[in-house]
Amino acid sequence: MLHPHVPISSLGALRCSPQNFSSFACRYIHYDGRNRLSNFWTPAQSKKDASLLKEDGHDLLIRAGYMRQAHAGVFHLLPLGLRVQDKIERLIDKHMLSLGASKVALSSMTSEELWQRSGRLDKGRGNEFFKLEDRKGGKLLLSPTHEEEITTIVANAVHSHKQLPLRLYQVSRKYRDEARPRQGLLRGREFVMKDLYTFDATHEAALKTYEIVRSAYRAFLDELHLPYLVADADPGNMGGNLSHEYHFASASGEDTIIQCDSCGYSINEELFIGRPDASGVELHGAEQMTQSYMISKDRKTLLCVLYPAGSELNSQAIKAVAPNTDFSVENSRQVFADGIKGVTTERIFSVLCDPRTEHAAERVLATGDLQRQASSLGATFALNLLEAKIHRQKILLTKARTGDRCHHCSEGKLHLHKAVEIGHTFHLGTRYSEPLDLRITDATNKQALVHMGCHGIGVSRLIGAAAALLSDEKGLNWPFAIAPFGTLLVRAGKTSAEDVDALYDMLCSEGMDAVIDDRADLPLGWKLNDADLIGYPFIVVVGKAWSERKAAELQCRRHGVKEQVVASELLARLATLSRQL
C-alpha cells in the first residue's frame, strides 16, 4: 500500500536541494485528499527588473502562475487561474438559479447563414469573425456571441405564450479577431463569457424581466465586495433600445463613465449629450470660441462647428444634429475644396453653434468671415445655420468635464471615471425574434413575436479586472469569493504537520476553502512572500504560539491585520473578516 505522503524523488524524480528553492521546490504527491501546495502546480516566473517596469495585474497573473500566453490575445489558464474562473462560474450559477434560469452549453461554431438572416454578418463585425469552411464548402464562424443560435433553438421548441417566460444561460468560450489584442484578459481574441437569454410573451413582461436581471447583477457584484459602476449604455450592434453597463473603476480602463455626485445619474461617455442648463456662463467674446470643420459622408456638405475654446467636441451630440457627418476625415476643409472640380450639384456650408457661444457666433457672423469662407471653398449655398437641438431641446456640443453641473438635477457635479466593463444587460425586444421567426400564439390566439433580452458577464475580463484593481507592490489580492483558496495554512518552527492537518480539517468542515503550504524545502520567509504574490485573502501561520496556547497568527493584507487568534475563535474571526472581502 502506498504511504499517503510519497515524494516524487522516491519515484525517480530529481531530488532538489534547499539552496535551489528560488528556482524550484521539491514536489511531493499526497493521497490524503487535502489541498496541498506540494501537490498543486504553481509555475511561478522570476520577477521583472523593478527598475525597468512596474508590474500590473496582467504581469502578476503571469508571474504568479495563473496563466500563460499562447498567442496574441489567447491565454492558457493554469490551475490557480482555473480555480478563480470556476469560483466565478459557481457564483454566476447561484445568481442565475435565483432567476429560474436553466444552463445550456452551445457549440462554439455557428453558421454564417444564421448571421446573414439576422443582418449581423456584414454589419460592423465583418473583420472580427474567425471564419471556417468544412470539406463540403459549408461556411461557419467561431461564435463571438450566440443570439442567433439560441433564438433558432427556442423558435423550434416554443410555440405558445404558456411556455414563457423562459430564461437560458451559458458560460462558454467566445471568439473575436481583435485587430489589437491588449491588456491581457481585458481585450483578447478568445474569452469566456456568461450569456443569459430571456424570452417573454409581451413587451411589458420583458421589461419586468430586465429589471429582475439588473437586480441579480447587482447581487452578484455585491458578493465580490469591489466598487462598481452601473451606467446607461449604447446597445450598439446588439440592437434594442435599453442597455446598461457594469464597470470596475480602473485607471487602465478603456471606457469613461460620467456620474453625478448628487442624484446618481450615471452614463457611458459614448452616450452622453449635455444640456445648456449645465453649461455655466454663456460666452460673449469671439476670443472664447473656437471652430472645427467636418464633412458629410457624401462630401457635399462642410460643417463648421462653433464651440467654447478649451473644450472637446462630442461626436455623439454632433451626430444627433447632423447624422451624415463623417468623423474619420482629418482635413475636411481641404477635402471639401478639392471636390469642387466637375461638381454640378449643390454644395452646402453649414454652421452649427453650441448654445453657450450663440452671442459670440453672432459677432463672427456679422463680420461676414464665415460667408467669405463658404464662397472661397466653393459652396453654392452660402450658409446653412443648424440649431443644436434634439426634440426641440438645446444640447451642448462638447464632452463632459469633471466639475460640470449635472443637467439631471442641476445641483450635483459630474465626475469622470476610467473604467473596465465587466457586464452588460440588453433589452433586445424583437430584434432577433423577427428575422429568425420566433413567434408564439398569444393569449388572444394570435401570432406574436417573442420579446427577448441578452445579458452578459465577461468572466475572463472579470479575472483580469479584479487582478488589476486590487494588486499592489507585493502581488495580487483577491476578493474572498473568487480567490483560488480563501485561506493558506503555513507551518512554522517545531509545529507538527499533524497539528496543521487538524486545523485544516476543522476549517474545511465548516465550509472554509483552505490549502496547506507543506513545501518542506522552502524557508518561511519565501513562503510568505509567495503567498502575498498569489494573493490569498488570509494567511494563517501555525508556529510557536500553537504549542503554547493553541493560537495561530492570522494575516489579512487588505485589512492590514496581523494578530494572534486562538483556535477556538479562528473560524469566527475568519468569517467576520471574509464578509468584508
Give your account of this protein's structure.
This protein is globular. Helix 2 crosses helix 5. Helix content is 25%, strand content 28%. The strands form eight sheets. Strands 5, 9, 10, 11, 12, 13, 14, 22 and 25 form a nine-stranded mixed sheet that branches. Strands 17-15-16-18-19 form a five-stranded mixed sheet, sandwiched between helices. The chain folds into three domains: 172 residues, 3-Layer(aba) Sandwich (Rossmann fold), CATH 3.40.50; 182 residues, BirA Bifunctional Protein, domain 2 (2-Layer Sandwich), CATH 3.30.930.10; 119 residues, Alpha-Beta Complex (YbaK protein). With 581 residues, it is of the alpha+beta class. A hairpin with a 4-residue loop joins strand 29 and strand 30. It has 14 helices and 30 strands. The N terminus is likely disordered.
